[in-house]
Amino acid sequence: MQDMTINGLEGLAYLPGHFDRPAQEALLDSVRAIVAEAPLFQPVMPKTGKAFSVKMSNCGPLGWVSDIKGYRYQPVHPATGHPWPAMPEALTALWQQLAPDAPPPEACLINFYEPGARMGLHQDRDEETFEAPVISVSLGDTATFRVGGLTRKDPTTSFRLQSGDVVVLGGSARLAYHGIDRILAGTSTLLKNGGRINLTLRRVTQSG
Question: What mean pLDDT, rounded, does the chain reach?
Fold first, then answer.
């Protein structure tokens, strides 16, 4: 695990190759089962209705959605109205390993990036509490990940996330701006038709 300090913020950790190829394949099978039950949907920006370039789903007790009404967490899929599927054991075990003192995760965002998709700099701040870290897993094609400080104007650092890599945003880096600049097509054979899946574990409500 590589602990990194960006703009004086501590709590950013990078775990390259944390999931080996068999573990990635097993996790991908779990994601496919989740998406079969809770299909990918196209989130849109609040107010403008402009579509994101990524498609998404969720698993766990809560799921993050974005539509014309705003950003929020809710217990059901926006299209099917059904509860989100349970999180795979591999992800809850990852959380226990990397955040043993934090309350359990309540949401896992599943973002699918096709070639050309990106995610602009943003903070993960739709949660009621920031007491737990955000933990993300990369599957599929390599992505250029950018992370900065607590304002959009802070300097940023970029590095590549490969399939099986894990990133932790905790401590003072919990609210660091971050995003995905580009997907490097053809850099992984995990997904038959290419692209990248990002799994993001979050605690949403205050514990106790």
Answer: 94
- pLDDT band per the 50, 70, 90 thresholds, residue 3: confident
Provide the residue type at 191 as one letter: L
Task: Return d(Cα 49, Cα 170) in angstroms, integer.
Answer: 31
Nearest to 119 by CA among 147, 93, 94, 98: 147
Query: What's the rounded Cα separation, in Å, for the pair 171 and 62?
Result: 23
Helices (H), the chain: 21-37, 89-98
Cβ-proximal residues to 204 (8 Å cutoff; 6+ apart), any chain: 62, 73, 106, 107, 127, 128, 129
CB 177 within 8 A of CB 113: no
- Phi, psi (5° rounding) for residue 186? 80, 15
Instruction: Say if residues 142 and 115 touch (Cβ distance below 8 Å).
Output: no
Cα–Cα distance measured from residue 196 to residue 108, given in angstroms and rounded to the nearest whole number: 16
8 Å CB contact between 176 and 149: yes
What are the tokens at 207?
A: 């514990």
Question: How do residues 143-172 score in pLDDT, each as one tens digit?
Answer: 999 999 999 999 999 999 999 999 999 999
- Identity of residue 170: G
Distance CA 74, CA 129 (A): 16
In single-letter form, the type of residue at position 63 comes to G
Distance CA(205)–CA(63), nearest Å, equals 12
Residue 22 CA to residue 93 CA, distance in Å, equals 16
